[in-house]
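**Backbone geometry record:**
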Amino acid sequence: MMAWQQAVITIVIIAICTLITRALPFWLFSGERAAPRFLPYLGSALPYAVIGMLIIYCLRDFSFAQPSRALSQGIGVAVTAALYLWRKHSLIAIVGGTAAYMLALRIFT
């Protein structure tokens, strides 16, 4: 099998799986059947849980043993938090915090 054929097959499989996972809740809970009570709770709780996990993942290597890296990470977190508190826009906060982190890495290492 050629490489382009494998790529096409992979893309088709990914597209089908994405379609199924996106459409499945609508198929299951449409019409007379009501959604379980825990789903609204998950809808309100999961975004905060995901953000918390992302913060833990991003700061998993934080160590004061490497002061320049710790400072860069601290600057990135502070800029991200400040931008979000100021603008209330996640994308601006993420892009600004990432840029500040990358710039701090260049400056301090």
